[in-house]
Amino acid sequence: MNKIKLEIFALSSSQSQQDSFALVLGEISGKERRLPIIIGRFEAQAIAMELEKIEPKRPMTHDLFAALGKTFHFTIEEIVITGMEEGIFTALIFLKDFRNGEQYQLDARPSDAVALALRFDAPIYAEDSVLEEAGIVPTEISRDDDDDDEEDGEEEEMALIGSKEEAKEEISTNQLSNLSKEMLEQLLQKALEEEDYEKAAKIRDEMQRRA
Predict the structure, then answer these.
(1) Closest CA to 188 of 21, 83, 36
(2) How many other C-beta atoms can be found within 10 angstroms of the C-beta atom of residue 139?
(3) pLDDT tens digit at each of 211 positions of the chain
């Protein structure tokens, strides 16, 4: 397993899906790829509270799981995001019984795995194949030197997705499917510049669908 270490880069609320958030994991070294994952409100709250070291009056589910693990002498050594299919990510939690050194692994959603990793100070990884498939690299998209072609492309883009302000709004799957690869790349770069990782994830999925 060729795995890449990640850190939490951002956690932001969804502009289009109620009770959804975009968790963005960033590659610590190397290509500096970012991995946006759409998660639910409860999981986002569990991650945010641990990041901010906020202690709830009563234990939340992830806090209870962490307390159970520590009470029965289990620790989380690491979590690994192992795959993605049709926008759904999978992950494994690697556990260790520190009384006898026995190791175990549990299948988990990445959002739960990350929330627990924070509570055990465990590292977060993703398989390199996941980052190759779903990772986003914030790079500047090169433009055609031909002024006429550039103007025509801009006019076509504006006709399909509206102004820059309108582009911040929800983009449907049907709209994305009508755009060229070059225009998708431009939209992806714009979404990254605006730190709209939810939109970036949707554009990424459309680009992968065509690959």
Answers:
(1) 36
(2) 12
(3) 699 999 999 898 866 667 789 899 999 987 789 999 999 989 999 999 999 888 888 899 999 999 999 999 999 999 999 999 877 899 999 999 999 999 999 999 999 999 999 999 999 999 999 999 999 887 643 344 444 444 444 444 433 333 333 344 445 556 777 777 778 887 887 777 776 767 777 788 778 777 7
pTM, full prediction: 0.70
Relative orientation angle of helices 61-71 and 41-51, to the nearest 10 degrees: 60
Q: What is the 3-state secondary structure (H, E, C) of the chain?
A: CCEEEEEEEEEEECCCCCCEEEEEEEECCCCCCEEEEEEEHHHHHHHHHHHCCCCCCCCCHHHHHHHHHHHCCEEEEEEEEEEEECCEEEEEEEEEECCCCCEEEEEECHHHHHHHHHHCCCCEEEEHHHHHHHCECCCCCCCCCCHHHHHHHHHHHHHHHCCHHHHCCCCCHHHHHCCCHHHHHHHHHHHHHCCCHHHHHHHHHHHHHHC
Cβ atoms 77, 94 nearer than 8 A = yes
